[in-house]
């Protein structure tokens, strides 16, 4: 099929171009964006965002721009089209760019399977931190989707941590499946050191 030949092409491209494709998963407010920023600013990675795709879709549907709407739309895409639908779209853009790429953010086991299938050299990074610290971070971001109570923050996250269906969000399962896990409870410098260490090992 046309789709399968596209998959085969992208696998070959990823392998022979020696393109580094890194996916980012992790808990809310753990520092996924900080890792992305490090990769784009210090290492020249191109950035492809699931949040940007979902924001566009949520706005087109006239839904309120919050985490509930984004979760609903993402789950619908993964369930009705394919578990890896969002990642297929983002990976196609990444392959077209021909650059080392970071894809943010991976939230379901089906998405990990899709990226590993599409790109033999795919690496999954996960970021985690203490819940109170993460809540402080999301509150300071001033994003529309992050202005919630601590209780709502914890219940939203719990909703994305429980399901075993490949098309449903399961952040904890994604973190467990990651190739490298960064703990971001300390300084920015400490996080940067962890990332640099892993990137150096990947380049060997």
Kindly list the characteristics that best describe this protein.
globular, alpha/beta, 58% helix, 204 residues, 5 strands
The low-pLDDT segments are: none
Query: Looking across the biggest beta sheet, what order are the strands in?
Result: 2-3-1-4-5
User: What is the 3D form?
Assistant: globular
Amount of beta strand: 5-15%
Terminal CA distance reads: 37 Å
The major pleated sheet works out as: 5 strands, parallel
Oligomer: single chain
Secondary structure layout plus pairing:
Elements: H1 2-16, E1 21-26, H2 32-43, E2 46-49, H3 50-60, H4 67-80, H5 85-97, E3 101-104, H6 109-118, E4 123-128, H7 131-140, H8 150-159, H9 171-177, E5 180-183, H10 188-203
Parallel strand pairs: 1-3, 1-4, 2-3, 4-5
Helix pairs in contact: 3-4, 5-6
Question: Your description of this structure?
Answer:
It is a single chain. This protein is an alpha/beta fold and 204 residues long. The chain has ten helices and five strands; from the N terminus they run αβαβαααβαβαααβα. It has a five-stranded parallel beta sheet, with helices on both faces. The radius of gyration is 16 Å and the shape is globular. It starts with a helix and ends with a helix. The mean pLDDT is 88.
Summarize the structure.
With 204 residues, this protein is an alpha/beta fold. It contains 10 helices and 5 strands, in the order αβαβαααβαβαααβα. Helices cover 58% and strands 12% of the residues.
